[in-house]
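Milestone 3.1: sequence recovery, worked example.
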């Protein structure tokens, strides 16, 4: 059997040379695991202690020869097609059954196999079924039911080529590691080598550096918001307003600002008449709106600047109350949006507290996708509904 080991070493030495020569995004992977050989359900007759095709196919106790191991290398050719070379070792102690034996034993005959298969996988998820076809060469030691060698003695290795077909499942545990379960039928056209099934369970490992695909980012106006998510792709704007500008920096995007240049008036983006932040009258109210990214509940620098106006107002009033109401767009489930809106209100409360505002004077509420500021039918509308509204009421100086 020394020549068999030499062939296996040369075979996988060549595979390893090919692997080490690949670039960082190598299409190669290694695998190693255990196998079981079953020579019983192969379409033979009782004279050979074997049965019909798939007869007692899952009779592990009586017919499966467990304890073998195998290792191999696979080369991928795209997402679905690959080629695998495998070397396997086992011992045959259970041959089949006779009229007087449910499990006919032989004397631990050696088993060696070199196989090459072409695989085609279905789907692209973590779990991929596949089919395989190919061929190889298998050696089985002579014993009670396979004494076909013309050489002297009855302990020689009987070897012949096989045509193989199989089915299996691959499951990706991570980007590199996976599991592979396979059942393969190996058909020999020589009488001196029995047909048989070989089942295997292997751990696979992908070589090379895992590099995610590079997706080009298009940002026509250069404002840091790619065109695919920019509501104003031709005009530079702010991230918190989905790429739309706020020329007067009043916290309301220009498209919804009723008062350009932060003028006095009524409506969104308008200053309230006869009102100053530094010396508020009694009673007085100040309202602010800040906006959030999709599925986010954190404050950027622009949002903090808006909240700081509320802080200044609170510092000038001895008696005040602040209400913070959080809202979302309609992306996601209603219960999830309710929780997200409350998180948005709470993060504003925590920032106010960090600036010295008493939490006893702050109330928060999360309305989820209720009470939208505008329609949720457009991306611009959704960006304006992802908000938190702050209102401070000062009752005395």
């Amino acid at each position: 059997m020394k020549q068999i080991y030499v062939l296996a070493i040369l075979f996988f030495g060549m595979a390893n040379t090919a692997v080490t020569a690949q670039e960082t995004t190598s299409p190669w992977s290694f695998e190693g695991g255990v196998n079981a050989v079953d020579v019983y359900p192969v379409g033979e007759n009782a004279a050979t202690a074997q049965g019909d095709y798939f007869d007692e196919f899952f009779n592990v106790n009586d017919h499966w020869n467990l304890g073998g191991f195998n290792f191999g290398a696979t080369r991928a050719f795209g997402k679905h097609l690959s080629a695998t070379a495998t070397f396997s070792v086992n011992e045959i102690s259970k041959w089949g059954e006779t009229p007087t034996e449910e499990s006919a034993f032989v004397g631990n005959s050696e088993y060696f196999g070199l196989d090459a298969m072409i695989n085609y996988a279905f789907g692209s998820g973590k779990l991929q079924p596949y089919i395989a076809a190919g061929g190889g060469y298998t050696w089985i030691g002579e014993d009670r039911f396979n004494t076909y060698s013309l050489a002297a003695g009855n302990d020689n290795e009987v070897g012949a080529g096989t045509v193989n077909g199989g089915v299996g499942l691959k499951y990706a545990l991570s980007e590199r590691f996976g599991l592979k379960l396979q059942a393969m039928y190996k058909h020999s056209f020589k009488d001196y080598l029995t047909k048989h099934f070989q089942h295997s369970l292997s751990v696979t490992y992908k070589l090379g550096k895992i590099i995610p695909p590079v997706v080009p980012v298009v940002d026509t106006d250069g404002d840091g918001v790619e065109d695919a998510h920019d509501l104003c792709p031709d005009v530079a704007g702010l991230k918190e307003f989905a790429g739309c500008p706020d020329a007067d920096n009043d916290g309301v995007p220009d498209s919804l600002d009723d008062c350009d240049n932060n003028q006095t008036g009524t409506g969104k983006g308008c200053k309230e008449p006869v009102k100053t932040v530094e010396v508020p009258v009694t009673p007085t109210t100040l309202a602010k709106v800040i906006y959030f990214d999709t599925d986010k509940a954190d404050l950027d620098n622009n949002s903090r600047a808006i909240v700081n106006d509320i802080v200044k107002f609170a510092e000038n009033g001895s008696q005040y109350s602040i209400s913070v109401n959080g809202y979302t767009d309609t992306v996601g489930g209603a219960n999830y949006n309710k929780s997200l809106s409350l998180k948005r209100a709470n993060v504003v409360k925590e920032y106010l507290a960090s600036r010295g505002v008493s939490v006893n004077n702050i109330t928060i509420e999360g309305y989820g996708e209720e009470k939208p500021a505008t329609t949720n039918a457009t991306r611009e509308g959704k960006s304006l509904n992802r908000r938190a509204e702050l209102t401070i009421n000062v009752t005395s100086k």
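Residues 334-354 form the longest helix (21 residues). The radius of gyration is 37 Å.
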